Amino acid sequence: MTQFYLIRHGEPQWVINEQYKLKGHGRDLVPLTASGVNQVFLAARDERLRDADLIVSSPYTRALQTAAILSKELGLDIRIEFDLREWQPDLTFQYDSLERLAELGNDYDANQGVYPPGETKLWESKELLRNRVEKVIDQYLGFQKVIITGHGMAFRTLVGEEAEIPHASISEYTKVNT
């Protein structure tokens, strides 16, 4: 049995996206705000994280910065997993504004993350996202305690949470090696 501690990244500097008119994955390059950095330092004090074996991180800047802070505070190595990236609102990588992101997110929510019969959507379905993240998690079932830094939507699919997961919060996820 492996205990996973899913830590959503700290608060990101989303304003950079609008300032530079970033598109697609370029929107995922923003670092944490000063408040976001402080959120992660506070999370690092959580006793549940003691004696973890390693940190596994999404490749996005906000998650990597979160992992780096935790690594420094807890003395753990970091492994980066591309498939821990956040939910993809636009599989064509063309969205370029908060408004478009909100439209895609609202459509996802209206359909509860499931493609309507016979339809294809721009966004990644809940099933595709969950399968992608679980495939990564399964690689770490040989460990006792693993910290994963990543994203709210990705973690929500694992823990069954419908509400937004707060920045730098810790969710527990246990999985048995079968």
Question: What does this 3D model show about the protein?
Answer:
This protein has six helices and five strands; from the N terminus they run βααβαβααβαβ. It has 178 residues and is an alpha/beta fold. The protein has a single domain, classed as 3-Layer(aba) Sandwich (Rossmann fold). The protein has a five-stranded mixed β-sheet with strand order 3-2-4-1-5. The longest helix is centred in the middle third of the chain and has 14 residues. The chain starts with a strand and ends with a strand. 31% of the residues are buried.
Write down the domain tally: 1
* Main sheet: strands, sense, barrel: 5 strands, mixed
- As laid out across the biggest beta sheet, the strand order is 3-2-4-1-5
Number of helices: 6
What's the N-to-C terminus distance? Answer: 9 Å
Cα-atom radius of gyration: 16 Å
Overall CATH architecture: 3-Layer(aba) Sandwich
- Average pLDDT works out at 94
> How do the SSEs run, as a string of H and E?
EHHEHEHHEHE
Determine the strand fraction and express it as a percent band. Answer: 5-15%
Which structural class best describes the helix and strand composition?
Answer: alpha/beta
Assigned CATH superfamily: Phosphoglycerate mutase-like
For the record, the CATH class is Alpha Beta
Question: Percentage of helical residues?
Answer: 25-40%
Low-confidence stretches: none
Beta strand count: 5
Organism: Paenibacillus rhizoplanae
Pfam family, one: His_Phos_1
InterPro entries: His_Pase_superF_clade-1, His_PPase_superfam, PGM_Phosphatase
Protein name: Histidine phosphatase family protein
